Amino acid sequence: MHQFLIFDVMKGKIILFFVANVLMSTLSYAQHPTLELVKQHKQIRRAGRVVVKGEVIDVTAVGFGTSGVRFVDEYNLDGYNRLQFTVENQDQRYPLYLTVELMNRDTVFREPVKGLHNRKYTINPGEKRDVSFDFLPALPHPEVASGFRLMRNTPYSRLTQSYCYDVDLSRVTGVKIIGTRMHKGQRWQIVAPRILAGELKTLHEAMHRDEKDFFPFIDQYGQFKYQDWPGKIHSDADFRKAVKEEDKDLANHAGPQDWDRYGGFKKGPRLDATGHFRVQKVNGKWWMVDPDGYLFWSNGVVRVTTSTAVTPLHGEKLEDRTSYFDQLPKEGTPMSRFYRTHDMLLKPYYAARGIDSTYDFSSANCYRKYGEDYKRVFAERAHRRLRSWGLNTIANSSDRDICLMDKTPYIDRLEVVSRPIEGTTGWWPFMDPYDDSFNESLRQQFESRQKEVEDPWCLGFFVDNEIKWNTVTYLAETTLKAPPEQPCKQAMITWLKSKYPSIEKLNAAWGTYYDSWGELAYDRVGVKVSKMTTPDLIAFNHQIVHKYFSNIKSAFKKYAPGVMYMGCRFAGNVNSDVLNIAFDYCDIISYNSYQYDLSHFHSSDIDKPIMIGEYHFGAMDRGMFHGSLIDVESQEQRGLAMERYIKSALENPNIVGVHWHQFSDQATTGRFDGENFQVGLTDCCDTPYYETISHLRKSGYPMYSLRYNP
Prior knowledge:
It contains 20 helices and 29 strands. Helix 18 runs parallel beside helix 19.
């Protein structure tokens, strides 16, 4: 008989075990001492303000971003199976988005990622939770993991419910407990972080498959093959069952009774009807007003189209991925048409990345579900769904044919496609507003959308998306490094000449040594940002931003009079200079705001209506490999998060609407940039997530009674 002691960390007491015939492997685990990380490390790398008091670590975020700790040492974790600690989110406003991570010294962050294992947790405001982060054994077939390309998360992430990239437990050099997307002043606490001995959990059966047996791992419907979940489609017959089930749900939920034909508040005041949507402040709150004069608050969803799950197969810069997919159709068969269907707005993003072959699983599934006339059937059902779900807006990037049915108000999005300022970055480079092609692009865009411009169901237009504005001098700095023929650079030099009569006076003001204005024009290095140059760089940066917004506003007046300019969909931290200039030109300021909620959302002291162009939440409990930009733990939690977000927006007097991103899930195997998020109101087989829909109705049906306060 063998006897040994184990200290139960969670309960704080010693348990005496008497074990007969103990296996040597079990005994070896018991012989490993507990690693108390606060005591047993070479150094703690800190992010934010970190105070260590015994086994308690207090963390305070000093700005938006990350905060927490990384324990650095040479750890041999063979014989250990988990990291355990207690975490408390001491903030009563914001959630704690927690990441726990192990790293090797030779961790590789580019594809194929290696030597990294992490898991994300959402700790609600005021919540205290015990966290147990389970380690994983070495991958039996690392060559399988190295074969995953262009996916934010992989099948192994789904199978382990974590982000799994084959860590060597005998050579761990970093243990990280970090909060992300932190707000300044947000406080949280880590208590008694310890690594405990024990047997590692067994990997899922699919992770023991070699390349021959694992690939293909996606079935004919675009779903993961090696797991099951509620709502998964197993045969074409399941589509017919799904239609019957949803028909009953839609019949039982016809939509809010206090909406007018546009989805406006027909029980509210009747204001001036102009025949177009507009904005007006009523009783201290900003509203949209629909064409019939009723108050309107936009609760919408982006990308209402059958083509949401388009995924790359191969391309100039992409290794062939056809081995991922089971039963890809042969050319000439009915299903081969979906090699050529696409999302119109996103198609240029594939081309820009050299992706020349894709497959559209979501459209293929709608074809299986609704038949040859699938686009019309889907469109009719989409309008019925939106009303039933408590949504009154088809947001941008949607199928134009669905929008122009004039059954649900919609918003479109333009993108200026013209000569860029060389050297700028982002989704696309920043387009040079001084180049003639800028205004020509706007003319072409509006003229191609004359039906929408004249359509009373059109709320307005966004122009561009998530531009990288960067610092208050960024555009001017980049302009100085541009070639001499860059129109923006020529405009800058003309402006400088008007301010400084000679190059010598410019040199004196900037501390530079140019021999002539021509030398400045041909300079591709630019100038150092300093106390001497900053005032002029800021001033011309303002001019560029003014030129950008004024050009667009002028195009609206000329080509789309009476139609609202709904901004450029800001994202992240935008410098206040750009915001203040945008306020002068935009009818509505738009933000893509991926946050827990909007209870502390502030745009500026300037009073202006605000539209949230994108938000979402996602989980990995329904077959997808990645949750979303804001992960939650289940579909029920996702619905609760959505309900909370909408209600917080309704309480904000400036916010006139929120738009969920997106109507259906992204492709399981990723889109052009690898995003493979579980963010749809339906999955890639067009099956609704009923938990999400239930909470959407709870916030959408009563939204006018929640918003309106006479």
